[in-house]
Design a protein that fits this description.
By secondary structure, this protein is of the alpha+beta class. Helix content is 35%, strand content 18%. Strand 2 and strand 3 form a beta hairpin. The chain is elongated and about 50 Å long. The model has no long low-confidence stretch (mean pLDDT 82).
Length: 120
Amino acid sequence: MQVKLLVEGGDMKPGPALSQKLGPAGINIGQVIQKINDATKSFKGLKVPVELTIDISTKNFSVSVFSPPVSGLLKKELGVEKGSGQQHKLQVANASIEQIISVAKTKMPNMLCKDLKSAV
């Protein structure tokens, strides 16, 4: 069984979405949350996609962490709380090429590009 979640990096809390999926399988939710928080510590303050692979018969699980969405990485890099909301009328920040390259390097393992130039 696979469960896909979008969690706050290093700060996941138990909630109804997780407990409804893991409760009937008999998986210890506290252990799952602790393992996810340990795996996502480096992405503190960002939403991070996490995939749980659960073997129901043995009650073992593994955690796969992917890189955060590009929008979250850009907001963190530019120091912006949220987007403008008024496209083409209101700008909230200007991104330098160095900042874009930094975001591309972070996102590279989960992209389908061959080199950094195409990722940028």
